[in-house]
């Protein structure tokens, strides 16, 4: 083997770096499990209804459903401090808003472009915000939320408010350049941020293995010394457990951390996806074996919660979702004067 030129010195080994502990499954009480169940079922039924309203022509533009991924937003957001922490995500955002307990009516009315919607009907499915809940959208540009989320983390640090930013993005977005610029700055400045990669196996129609040279996405921070953890994103208790570990790391001032949530979307990328890139059998197999809601149902059953109690929850949720849909169909479109509001920020 050729010798290395004399000028090239062997580098000293990188000192051992501290790693986060292996996350544990969260030990939920029956009440907490019931709450997870309710929230996940709310997302599922809401999204099914949104799909129907889209088919009926009530929803225009793009609409990306979160069905299959419910455990991620519910598990993670249940661990956050609603007074301090902030969240940002991409266009597949209805579930994250519902996990925050935001009224399904104002979310559905946003989907139908009505004045009572949370962005006054001007944002639609992809652009919803609640500054009250520190939820900063809802972004259509793949990967943009990663840099914006890093900015939110910078603001938490600068203002010394003790908050942590959570920036969700997809497996496809994980290949975007700005993600790595953000990683570099976040680690350099030890920003309080959890980067959550929702690896649902596909970016539009391209599978993660086809498009990613390193498909173990939790490793994507290694060159920046950002630790990563791979998590079962179909198990709400694993999601919550990982959130606890990540929050402890970030709140201790150790800088950013990556959580790769292994999940799956059951529906097409958006409502206009013919889904020719995967078989029905593949989707059905995940539904049968790993459905996040069925999983919680089994846990509740093991804790002695009766089928009747779960049926009552289901009925209650269907009622809320139907009311949200009726509201979203009937409430008026925004007034023309809304064209000029919230367009330009005049003072900073
Ligand atoms: C900068 C940019 N490039 C391309 C697109 C078109 N586009 C929208 S979603 C998407 C795939 C993203 O997949 P992923 O990050 O895995 O998120 P998922 O949809 O699976 O939640 C693409 C390429 C876009 N919106 N923005
Ligand atoms: Mg994806």
From TrEMBL:
Which Pfam families does the UniProt entry name for this protein? Answer: E1_dh (PF00676)
Keyword annotations: Oxidoreductase, Pyruvate, Thiamine pyrophosphate
Give the enzyme's main class according to its UniProt record, as a single word: oxidoreductase
EC number of this enzyme: 1.2.4.1
- The domain of life is Bacteria
Region described as Disordered: 1-22
Cofactor(s) this protein requires: thiamine diphosphate
Q: Give every Dehydrogenase E1 component domain span.
A: 39-336
Q: Which reaction(s) does the protein catalyse, per the Swiss-Prot or TrEMBL entry?
A: N(6)-[(R)-lipoyl]-L-lysyl-[protein] + pyruvate + H(+) = N(6)-[(R)-S(8)-acetyldihydrolipoyl]-L-lysyl-[protein] + CO2
- Which residue windows does the record flag with biased composition (Low complexity)? 1-11
Record InterPro entries: DH_E1, PDH_E1_Alpha_Subunit, Pyrv_DH_E1_asu_subgrp-y, THDP-binding
Instruction: Name the PANTHER family for this protein.
Output: PYRUVATE DEHYDROGENASE E1 COMPONENT SUBUNIT ALPHA (PTHR11516:SF60), PYRUVATE DEHYDROGENASE E1 COMPONENT, ALPHA SUBUNIT BACTERIAL AND ORGANELLAR (PTHR11516)
Fetch the NCBIfam families from UniProt.
PDH_E1_alph_y (TIGR03182)
The record describes the protein's role as: The pyruvate dehydrogenase complex catalyzes the overall conversion of pyruvate to acetyl-CoA and CO(2). It contains multiple copies of three enzymatic components: pyruvate dehydrogenase (E1), dihydrolipoamide acetyltransferase (E2) and lipoamide dehydrogenase (E3).
Q: How does it assemble?
A: Heterodimer of an alpha and a beta chain.
**UniProt protein name:** Pyruvate dehydrogenase E1 component subunit alpha
């Amino acid at each position: 083997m050729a010798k290395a030129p004399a000028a090239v010195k062997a580098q000293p080994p990188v000192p051992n770096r501290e790693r986060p502990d292996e996350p544990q499954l969260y030990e939920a009480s029956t009440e907490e499990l019931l709450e997870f169940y309710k929230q996940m079922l709310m997302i599922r039924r809401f999204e099914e209804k949104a799909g129907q309203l889209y088919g009926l022509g009530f929803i225009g533009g793009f609409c990306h459903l979160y069905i299959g991924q419910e455990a991620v937003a519910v598990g993670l957001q249940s661990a956050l401090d609603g007074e301090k922490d902030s969240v940002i995500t991409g266009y597949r955002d209805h579930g994250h808003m519902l996990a925050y307990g935001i009224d399904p009516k104002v979310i559905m009315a946003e989907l139908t472009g009505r004045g009572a919607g949370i962005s006054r009907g001007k944002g639609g499915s992809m652009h919803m915000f609640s500054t009250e809940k520190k939820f900063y959208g809802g972004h259509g540009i793949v990967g943009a939320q990663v840099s914006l989320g890093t900015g939110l983390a910078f603001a938490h640090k600068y203002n010394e408010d003790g908050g942590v930013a959570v920036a969700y993005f997809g497996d496809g977005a994980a290949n975007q350049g700005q993600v790595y610029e953000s990683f570099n700055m976040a680690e350099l400045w030890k920003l309080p941020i959890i980067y959550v990669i929702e690896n649902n196996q596909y970016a539009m129609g391209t599978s993660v293995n086809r498009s990613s040279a390193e498909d173990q996405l939790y490793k994507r921070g290694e060159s920046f010394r950002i630790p990563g953890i791979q998590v079962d994103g179909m198990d709400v208790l694993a999601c919550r457990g990982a959130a606890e570990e990540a929050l402890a790391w970030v709140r201790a001032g150790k800088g950013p951390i990556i959580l790769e949530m292994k999940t799956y979307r059951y529906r097409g990328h958006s409502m206009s996806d013919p889904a020719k890139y995967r078989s029905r059998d593949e989707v059905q197999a995940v539904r049968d074996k790993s459905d996040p809601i069925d999983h919680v149902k089994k846990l509740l059953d093991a804790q002695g919660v009766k089928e009747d109690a779960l049926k009552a929850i289901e009925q209650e949720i269907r009622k809320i979702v139907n009311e949200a849909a009726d509201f979203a169909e009937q409430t008026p479109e925004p007034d023309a004067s809304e064209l000029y509001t919230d367009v330009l920020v005049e003072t900073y």
